[in-house]
Amino acid sequence: MNKTRLSLKRIAGLLGPFVGLILVISIFSLMPEVSDRFLRLANIRSVATQSVIVALSALGMTLIIISGGIDLSAASNLALSCVLVAFAINLGLPPVLAALVGVASGGLIGFLNGFLITRLRLVPFIVTLGMMGIARGIAKWVARNQKIDAPLSWLNELMVRSPRPFWLVVSPGIWIMILLSIIMAVLLRKTVFGRHVVAVGSNELTARLCGIRTDRVKIIVYSLSGFFCGLAGVTEFSRLTVGDPTVAMGLELDIIAAVVIGGGSLSGGVGSILGTLIGVFIMAFLRNGCTMMGWPNYFQEIIIGAIIVLAVTLDRLRHRQE
Amino acid sequence: MTDEQFLRLISISKSFGNNLVLDSVNFELRKGEVHALLGENGAGKSTLVKILSGAYKPDSGRMSVAGVDYRPSSPLDGLEKGIAVIYQELNLAPHLTVEENIMLGQEENRFGFVDKKRNRKTIMQVLEFLHHPEISPDIPVRKLTVGARQIVEIARALVSRAMILVMDEPTSSLSQEDTQRLFQIIRKLKDEDVGIIHVSHFLEEVVEIADRFTVLRDGKVAGCGNISETSIEGLIQMMIGQRLSELFPRIPHQPGGVLLSCRDIEGKTMDKAVTLELCRGEILGVAGLVGSGRTEFLRTLFGLDRLEKGVVVVSGESFKPKHPEESIKRGLGFLSEDRQTEGLAVRMSLADNLTLSQLRFYSRKGFLRVKKQRQAADEWVNKLNIKARSAQQVVFTLSGGNQQKVALARLLHQEAEVFLLDEPTRGIDVMSKAQIYEIMGRLASQDKSVIFVSSYLPELLGVSDRIAVFHRGQLVEARPAAYWSEASLMKAAITGKES
User: Fold this and answer.
1) Does B363 sit within 8 Å of A192, measured CB to CB?
2) Domain for residue A293, yes or no?
3) How many domains does chain B have?
4) H helices of B19-74, where?
5) How far from chain centre, in Å, is Cα B281?
6) In terms of C-beta density within 10 A (0-12 exposed, 13-18 middle, 19 or more buried), how is residue B242 classed?
7) A263, A62 Cβ separation under 8 angstroms
8) What separation in angstroms does the CA of A186 have from each of A183, A200, B368?
9) Do the beta carbons of residue A285 and residue A21 sit within 8 Å?
10) Cβ of residue B342 closer than 8 Å to a chain A Cβ
11) Which of A65, A275, A296, B100 has the most CB atoms less than 10 A away?
12) Number of C-beta neighbours around residue B338 at 10 A
């Protein structure tokens, strides 16, 4: 009986974002101008592929936000990884190693964030704001302020819309995203480490009192998030086929928005992987729908801005009722 | 003029929930007198001060200043009507200068522009009056000593032309010299017909500076009169009164060999060395005023505040507590005095809170065994009779007493040997209190040890085997409970002297 109550409660927490997603999808599928194209497999496939980059970074961001932190350097980190992959391929490294370089650079930046936050006792906002500039600067430096062209390899097939072999149905990038989402959801809900992350975000003083090494937890969380940004950078390279240091400018705000729309609380302790994914898809379908309708860019921005405020307001109201 | 009752409080009552904090309190203040407001922790002094300042509204009763009805709608309104309160934790903006702090909210201005010249003149006059012209108006307040900050607060009150000054524990963080300097100022203000309400625990100072006194006990006035007609002992007797004897369940236990000892430990929050031994099967009570260093002692022992000197020995093994993780492994358990912001993660479930310090027992290769965790929580809910719908209930929806039982259950569950309990019965109902006393007795009978910090003397006397007293950071005494009485404990806590 306890179990049903628990899962009911969790479902209720996800209900808001989920209804939002359904709403967005149904509105566009009812628009006569686009209704015939919007729900086609091809379009859904393309939306999903577009979501991979934000979704991967948002997995790590979810963990950070649940732990009570924030990472403003996510997008710069991603760009640096993207550039390094192209750079490594041009050095003659095999694609696997090049991808590893990207992922490792992401993890390293994340580790540095965590290290500085815990050792210097600085707030995450400041440390990652600094890292945002540093990582972006290094990316431009490595790329000599221009795009790095790299020869095509199998890496570039991670993000194709019609994958080979055909039985994959969707691009490998999407499969990676699904797999990692499941792993992260399990990590968060089913492991001791996950519970420690929630405890640190819910009340850091209590966590310390209970003997949890809060600093260690934070360093791991930031490193993991950096790793995901690095991986997102690899997929970004795969999509662009070049290493572009100016890619994903401002994307950190989309990533944070996805977590928040999905029910994550910036004061820590609350959030879920599934919620974040729904948040990612709400934004992706909105962008896609608006583009298909031929609505201008600024219109999308206004709608997404309004949705962020609306989502958090609804969440607040729900909590007050409890 | 001086004999007239300047401030009158008639039959003031205030309750929070079911808790009657002030019960028909009368209070009078004359012009140019220092009136001491006395009472134990929790007697209602702070609430009365907050009502005076306008921060709280009384449930019933009247107040008047100079014969005019006084009904402050906020502290700012109170200040404008002539009552300034100087709180224990000073209310200054550390980054602003002395001048900016003094004039904050009362800047001399012309069309909204600060009139620097006039400001400066006012400030120099006030600082001169206070005999502190050496405090420069241009330095940021954070660079001043605590004593000087207090002068700034008083200057602020004077600029607002307050005729009544309420000082809440003004000397608790002052050195001897600063205290004397403050008293000089108080005497000077008296000459200017300012009425001063002096809230203090330090009775020797009260006897030195005050003209009259009012003692609060359990929210009622227990006595008032002229200081010259009473003594420190008399005041203490009024503060503690004749209490109804309460029932403290005594579970037989026999103190054995030494379990924990600390020699000359000093730490970041403990500037005076403390040496103490604790036996198996012993309940050691710790008395002392708020801010006397009792909490800091427990926190340093547990590794929450940094230990700088000395070692702690538990079961013959010595170690320097650095992090609660290590202390827990060595068998220490700590119950925070502040369960809302530190003791419990109130937005997490009861089961999570209960097992948070020992999650590895409920895991296999890092994966949580939620079922086992929930079973353990259910077991403790039953054992301690915690009123909750289920182990998954979020902690902040529980009552105070039940929350405290969850926090205590965590220590029991982690099988601590030494229980460091900081105000374990604060703000909880009588039934839960009795249960917590019983748990403490049972722990002692199982050869575990308890250090029990409390401000409530009857429970200290009723539950402890031995009682230690802290005074201004120093451990004054540790003697068998039978040796102490409420009066002698209070005296040791207030004066720091053994009797």
Assistant:
1) yes
2) yes
3) 2
4) 45-53
5) 29
6) exposed
7) no
8) 5, 18, 10
9) yes
10) yes
11) A65
12) 13
Residues 225-284 of A with CB under 8 A from B: 269-270
Check if the beta carbon of residue B435 is closer than 8 Å to that of residue B268: no
Select the residue of A191, A207, A211 nearest B367 (Cβ to Cβ). Answer: A191
Domain-embedded: residue A23:
no
- As for the ipTM of the complex, it is 0.83
Cα angle at A158 between A152 and A163, to 5 degrees? Answer: 105
CB atoms A193 and B366 under 8 Å:
yes
Distance from CA of B409 to the nearest CA of A (A): 13
Cβ within 8 Å, pair B344-A5? no
Joined tokens for residue B76:
């700012």
Q: How far apart are CA B436 and CA B428, in angstroms?
A: 10
Domain that holds residue A313: 42-321
Distance from CA of B149 to the nearest CA of A (A): 28
- Same domain for B359 and B442? yes
Helix (H) / strand (E) element for A111: namely helix A95-119
pLDDT digits (tens, 9 = 90+) for B41-95: 778 888 899 999 998 999 999 999 988 999 999 888 888 888 998 876 667 888 8
Q: Is A195's CB within 8 Å of B323's CB?
A: no
Residues B216 and B265 both lie in one domain:
no
Those residues whose C-beta lies under 8 Å from the C-beta of residue A309, and which sit 6 or more positions away, are none
Q: How far apart are CA A132 and CA A129, in angstroms?
A: 5
Q: Does residue B357 sit in the same domain as residue B390?
A: yes
Residue A90 sits in a domain of what CATH number?
A: 1.10.3470
CB A42 within 8 A of CB A170: no
| B247-286 confidence digits (pLDDT tens) | 787 888 888 899 999 989 999 988 889 999 999 999 999 9
What pLDDT is recorded for position A1?
37
Count how many residues are written for chain B.
499
Paired tokens of A145? 């302020």
Its domain, for residue B97, covers 5-240
